[in-house]
Specification:
The chain is mainly beta. About 10% of the residues lie in helices and about 45% in strands. It has 3 domains: about 160 residues, Sandwich (Jelly Rolls); about 90 residues, Immunoglobulins (Immunoglobulin-like, Sandwich); about 60 residues, no CATH class.
Amino acid sequence: MIRRMLQESWTLRVNQEQEELPAAVPGSVYRDLLAAGRMEDPFWRDNQEVALDWMRKNRFTYQCRFTPEKAVLECGEALLRFFGVDTAAEIILNGSPLGHVENMHRTYEFNVTHLLRSGENVLTVELGSPAGRSRKALRKAWFLPGWDAGIWRPVELLGVEEARITDVRVRQRHENGRVELSLGLSARSTADGVEYRAELVDPQGHIVAFPERPMTLTVENPRLWWPRGYGEQPLYTVRVWAQREGRVLDRWEGRTGLRTARLLVEKDQFGEAFVHEINGVKIFAMGAAYLPGDARPYPAASGGLRRRSFQLRPGVGRRVLSPGLFL
């Protein structure tokens, strides 16, 4: 798999104006307008009304000009991946529509194999206004019903080389102090002789290979994951790759904690219990949520959203909202 991030040479136009403003991707409309001196800080006094008017009365067009590498053009398949667009937008490549998006929380992929060309390519994202749209119809963070827009996560050009791993599911079965890990692999290939390999890296860095078929491995004396206050949180790393004639075509990597989890709903002396059970131990769970003070979730817009770490009491869950987005 050949990957190229499209982070440079982005511009922003307001409506049909000829002026092209420098733009940051990932980023947002407000960030780019602020950087260009076209709007004032929306958090100063009542400037939020002016900021909302920008969304109500205008349309915004992001554009990127890029030249793909020869290796990408020679691949059997080329994809454009948008990790996050806020929110309603038309995606266009070289004048050909790729699709319409209306969900800032998900990733979108478009097959551009027959649209990509040697030399300069023009990628366009036409953003519609979120103002006045129903929250149910538009999948936008709830704290942003009519506020800001943009390409808030990276954009990537992919060249698929003969094989691609699309999904890996890690299943675990606990029995007699051991954990059986099995991998469910979703992949596709366009060539014969493609092989898939996997390995497990324990918290100490020791590596054990999965059998080829089935991809099932038994972990002896596993280090279990526990909620904070009940034990440690060791993580195991799973690596999967596709190869042909010794050449790696694609990779996938993920981490997992080894633990059992059950939700117990049963009658008790108070009525009905609602208890989380981890590794056979009932957890007294409480929760807290922190909402960052900056209503702009885009790192380029707010100087970087800082992940905050809290020392909470044992059994207290921690959730950081970014804001309205789950981290």
